[in-house]
Amino acid sequence: MSSGDELARKGREYPQSPIVGVAAVVVRGPDILLIRRGREPLLGAWSLPGGALELGETTAAGAVREVLEETGIRVKPVELIATLDRIVRDEEERVRFHYVLVEWFCTAEDDAEPLVCGDDAADARWVSKQEIFSGKYDLGETTLGVIERALRLAETMSR
User: Tens digit of pLDDT for each residue in 2-31?
Assistant: First the structure.
């Protein structure tokens, strides 16, 4: 089954209603965890780890599961930092994807865990704050704002 067929089957592409998704800003010391998306939407783009919430799952549990599935990293959810709309339209302005994303600030449970890509992550890496805000990963203003909020929270916690 092709990636497009799989998305259509799951009702994610051209959905009848918005899909609840979760994402995590995972902080480990001075670094933030990023993944390169291995599937649509945003195939090949760098982003925060995350995905669709499963039925019966809390958003905190969903963020933990998605980070583990995509990177092999175990995290602890600390605080909800944002709720965002991600709406992608096609050439005819029809809604191709519509996610309501619940963004969590999380900390890595083990500083020594190696990154292991899985699920829909084509790559994963720990990235310094300087690299993130340099534009190298083309994260977009909204994602950078979420990361900035999480870093401010992490800084207040370390005092």
Answer: 555 555 546 789 999 999 999 999 999 889
pTM: 0.88
Each residue's pLDDT tens digit, 79-114: 999 999 999 999 999 999 999 999 999 999 987 788
Show Cβ contacts of residue 132 under 8 Å, excluding neighbours closer than 6 positions. Answer: 32, 34, 139, 144, 147
Answer whether the bond into residue 41 is a cis peptide, omega within 30°.
yes
17: phi then psi, degrees, rounded to nearest 5:
-150, 165
- Overall number of domains in the chain: 1
CATH number at residue 123: 3.90.79.10
In the chain, where do the E strands start and end? 19-28, 31-37, 46-47, 50-52, 75-89, 95-108, 121-128
